């Protein structure tokens, strides 16, 4: 099943670039606490989620692991044990409305 189109704006500030890269790192398996955005920073969550989504969208066809999962499932797996952050990025200021 092909991935849906993901349209994510390129980060334009060092902070945005940092959080986008951190989201990519988490998608690829990082568990470093510094790669997860703070609960009180919606902008960081937005860019982190953009990076995570971009990494998912770049998965090659037929890949396994999180690549084989729908984006929301991959996100839930990545944020296992971080339910407050999951709720924030899915429902709070950090959630971009760019998936279609």
Description:
By secondary structure, the protein is an all-alpha fold. The chain has one domain (14-91). Helix content is 47%, strand content 0%. Helix 1 packs across helix 2 (42-57).
Largest sheet: none
Structural class by sheet pairing and helices: mainly alpha
Unreliable residue stretches: 93-100
Percent range of helical residues = 40-55%
How much beta, percentage-wise?
A: under 5%
Overall mean pLDDT stands at 83
Number of domains: 1
How many distinct helices? 4
Give the tally of β-strands. 0
Termini Cα gap: 15 Å
- CA radius of gyration is 12 Å
N-to-C order of helices and strands: HHHH
- General form: globular
In brief:
The protein has 100 residues and is mostly helical. 47% of the residues lie in helices and 0% in strands.
Keywords, separated by commas or semicolons:
single chain, disordered C terminus, 100 residues, mainly alpha
Blueprint of the fold:
Elements lengths: L13 H14 L14 H16 L13 H8 L4 H9 L9
Helix pairs in contact: 1-2
